[in-house]
Amino acid sequence: MLETHTRIKRYSKSDTMSLMICDYHKWMGGVDVHDLLRLQRYSIQMQTWCKKYYKSIFMGLVDVAVGNA
Prior knowledge:
- The protein is an alpha+beta fold.
- The chain has one domain.
- The chain is built from three helices and two strands; from the N terminus they run ββααα.
- It has helices spanning 19-39, 44-47, 53-68, and strands at 5-10, 13-18.
- The radius of gyration is 19 Å and the shape is elongated.
């Protein structure tokens, strides 16, 4: 049988939480780190100014690739 809920502790009582929510909280940290790097000066897309839209999109894809590496 597939389990869809897990037990969690909240202060003094125990409660149930969906496994989907648990997975979301578990993996959300990587997305937050990527967002922080994109907003900082480490972003290639933010450092270069391009007249053509496709160059800016390419630089954004390079940022995503570097963040995932």
